[in-house]
Structure formats: C-alpha cells, structure tokens
Design goal:
The chain has 331 residues and is an alpha+beta fold. The chain has 8 helices and 15 strands.
Length: 331
C-alpha cells in the first residue's frame, strides 16, 4: 500500500544538506485512507428491489410491487431496455452505478453479461494532448489545457504556460537547492528537460481562472475529494473531466526532491515521480485517464491502484465547474 509521504519514509533525498523546518502542511497531507475492502453478500437479488427508471424512458409500468416481485420485475425491465437499445453506453453504466453504488457495480456487469468496453462511463469529447517534445516536465499544464479544450477553449499547452502559469526558479547555491512553494508557483521551467519540477493543485487552479473568460464557469480546487467522489460527482454526473495528481505509471513514491525556500525558512518536499493526468471514465474495475506522459494516450488502471496513487499525492484534483455547482469532500 502506498504511504502518504513523510520525511521518515524516504531516506533517499535529493541534495539539500542544509534543509530544516520541513513543512508538513501542504495539501497532499490532508487526505485520509479509506478501507479498500469491499463487502459483498451471497444474495444480490436485493440490488434490484425498488429500482425505478427515469420517467421519460419507455420502460413499462412503474406500479409498485412487493420487494421480491419488484426485484424480478425491475431485472426484466432492465434486460428489455438493454435489448431494445433504450439503455446503453454511458446511460446504462450511470443507471447501474447510481442504484448499486461503486462496490456492487461489478455484480451488475457480470449479471448482465457485458464486457468492459460495453459497460463503462467514458467521456469521448476530451481532446488528448501529449507533453512529449514540448513540455517534458509540464504534465500539470498539459492536463489543464485538456480541461480547457474540452470546454471549448482554443489554446495550446505552450501558450497556457507562457501566459498563465506562475513559475519561479530552482537553483543551487553553496550546495543547497532553493525554490518556491509548489502550492504557489511552478518550480523551475516546464520546457526544460532537467530543470523542471512541478506544482500542485492551487497553482493550476489559479492559472486556469486567469485564463477563463466565462463568468459562469470557474476552475475549482477539489482537493480532499475521494477519487470515487471525483468520478461520480464531477465526471459522471456533470460530464466534466478532472485533472488529478498521481504518480507515473501509478508506482509508489520512491524518493523525494527537496529544496529550501528563498528566505531559508522552510524546506519543501516533492515526489520524484509525481504526475498529473485527466480522469475521463470508469468501468467496473478500472479508471480511464488521459496520460500526457510519453504520448501514452488514454490509459486504464485498476481502480485500487489509481486510488492509492491519488491518495499518496494528497487527493489533489482540479475541474472546471459552473459557479452554481458545489461539491464538498465527504466527512
């Protein structure tokens, strides 16, 4: 299991022999682990008891029946709706997810007899962008640009960086590395192969809001939401992609960069393999993400693997939402 990072957990630190006052207050220490175990029961007939389809779907009589009869009736209606094409693709997955919850969605898939490609929620209108050859250390900016382009903005990752991304230098002096708070500015230069480190969700949120001109839409820092909340509340319910902070290939955090603030008062830790991707979908067992690294395209990883990587990076998330939409982390 990935561990949220602590100075004691990572003996291999990268070149800052005069570090002191290591800050543990950044956003990535706010998340709480959830129990990954999934409770299942032998009898799943109760999943379908009391299920009613939306009113405008021609799915038959909505008359209420006793629980056992209702379960059989709703199962028959569900199968008929699938066979007739009244319920398919994103609508089918959304319906089953909303009534079963994330822990039981696999049971729905197996009982219906569909493969993942036919039983998933997937945003196919998110333009994929690669950082390869343009921003070797700019995964955050490229992911932010994917959010913008999916909302109709015409802007390139390079222009987004030059016009909107706050950047501060990282440099060595007398054997000590100095740099900015990654919650306030991008550390280094994302155009550089070896001189770019990265930034966290508050920086991307501010940069996106500098770019947005629609008064009804804004970038929202959703740090603290569980990944399941991000999918269900942002991606599925609002058909909106979300940038999330994870690690390259969902691997464990193996080591940390560290640098000192310019005024020598604080030391910042930054995971060597930190990464940012765009969440666009889910099936019964996997999340789907646009991965800008090395032109990987759309990738999918097992749900638990993505959740652990997301937790290790502090449950950081940014999405473009309408101002009247409010999403708060679960208590």
């Amino acid at each position: 299991m990935l561990q949220r990072f602590s100075p004691l957990s990572f003996p291999r630190l990268h070149s800052n022999q005069f570090s002191k006052n290591i800050s543990l207050t950044s956003a990535y220490f706010l998340s709480q682990y959830r129990d990954p175990s999934i409770l299942q029961t032998e009898d799943h007939s109760d999943l379908f008891a009391g299920i009613y389809f939306w009113e405008d779907a021609p799915l038959g009589d909505q008359t209420e029946f006793p629980a056992e009869e209702q379960a059989l009736l709703d199962w028959d209606i569900l199968l008929q709706a699938i066979a007739c094409g009244d319920l398919s693709g994103n609508e089918l997955f959304r319906f089953c997810y909303e009534y079963s919850g994330p822990d039981e969605i696999l049971i729905f898939r197996d009982m219906i007899g569909l493969v993942d490609e036919d039983f998933r929620f997937y945003l196919d209108n998110v333009p994929y962008l690669s950082q390869e050859g343009i921003l070797p250390n700019g995964c955050e900016a490229v992911s932010a640009t994917m959010l913008l382009q999916s909302s109709g903005f015409s802007i390139s990752p390079e222009d987004f960086v030059r016009a909107y991304l706050p950047m501060e230098p990282v440099y060595l002096e007398w054997g000590c590395r100095y740099g900015p708070d990654p919650n306030q500015a991008y550390a280094g230069d994302p155009f550089s192969e070896n001189g770019g480190w990265g930034c966290f969700a508050p920086v991307i949120t501010e940069a996106l809001n500098q770019c947005l001109k629609d008064p009804d839409q804004k970038a929202v820092n959703l740090t603290g939401l569980s990944l399941e909340q991000v999918f269900s509340e942002v991606v599925m319910k609002n058909n909106t992609p979300a940038a999330i902070w994870v690690t390259i290939d969902m691997q464990e955090i193996s080591s940390m960069y560290q640098w000192q603030s310019y005024d020598h008062s604080t030391t910042y830790l930054y995971p060597v393999n930190q990464h940012c991707m765009v969440l666009i979908g889910r099936d019964a067992e996997h999340y789907y993400l646009c991965d800008p690294y090395e032109s990987n395209g759309v990738v999918r990883y097992p749900i638990e693997q993505v959740e652990q990587s997301y937790l290790a990076m502090g449950s950081q998330c940014v999405a473009l939402l309408h101002e009247d939409l409010s999403i708060t982390p679960a208590s």
